[in-house]
Amino acid sequence: xxxxxxxxxxxxxxxxxxxxxxxxxxxxxxxxxxxxxxxxxxxxxxxxxxxxxxxxxxxxxxxxxxxxxxxxxxxxxxxxxxxxxxxxxxxxxxxxxxxxxxxxxxxxxxxxxxxxxxxxxxxxxxxxxxxxxxxxxxxxxxxxxxxxxxxxxxxxxxxxxxxxxxxxxxxxxxxxxxxxxxxxxxxxxxxxxxxxxxxxxxxxxxxxxxxxxxxxxxxxxxxxxxxxxxxxxxxxxxxxxxxxxxxxxxxxxxxxxxxxxxxxxxxxxx
Length: 270
Ligand code: NAD
What we know:
Helix content is 34%, strand content 23%. With 270 residues, the chain is α/β, with parallel strands linked by helices. Helix 4 links the parallel strand 5 (97-99) and strand 6 (120-123). The site of nicotinamide-adenine-dinucleotide has 24 residues, from helix 1.
């Protein structure tokens, strides 16, 4: 049994993900909270973070500066504008990073690759273990079925979601496209307002929006007289926190490099 205690610093601590991450760390037997960082000027700076999430005092106060210790792992779910500064700080302090912030600019992505030559980094647009496995299974299924089966997907999210289709749907589509020797950009179809038969080469992704749905993705492979459906339903954003914290434990002590959730779950080799 792995009885290491992983010490984590949460960046973006006042955000929805930051609070979910802290809640998970505080009830974990295998992790300890070493710090919590919010944006400069955020309300509640120097307050006890236990109180901030409605728990007992934990003796850690909210800070606006990232100063990780030598044995800490930084977990950043903040905003893309902040990422470069935190990357530089992690490199300077030689600590591993788990990066969940999405919407990184191309320039920040270059910095991410540069930083991963110095420190181990796990970056993923979706840290859910279930979604990662679904992407893997989607690719393997598409490869086995070949181009004779049509691939169609629908996704549902809450009414406030800004992008459509979801990044996750595109990632699932990419796995299907790659497994069948196609390029997603050439095959994706996000609406059908023309009457006429479906071309063989399409991968359809339809987006539904409404209510408070956290996230649901269904991928269908439609063949002659048979159909396979893969569905993932997210009920709580804690699925991302748990996956990110699993990544934090995994990356602790790894060699420098840019890793993703497929590395964490050892799915590249399957
Ligand atoms: P949120 O808006 O609730 O929280 C973001 C927090 O970051 C806010 O409290 C904001 O004040 C804080 N922040 C801004 N600048 C900062 C700085 N310089 N230093 C520290 N904190 C700073 O958003 P959220 O829903 O918690 O999501 C946060 C990020 O994580 C987004 O980029 C989101 O897309 C991403 N996300 C990723 C995954 C995944 O699995 N990879 C899952 C959910 C959300």
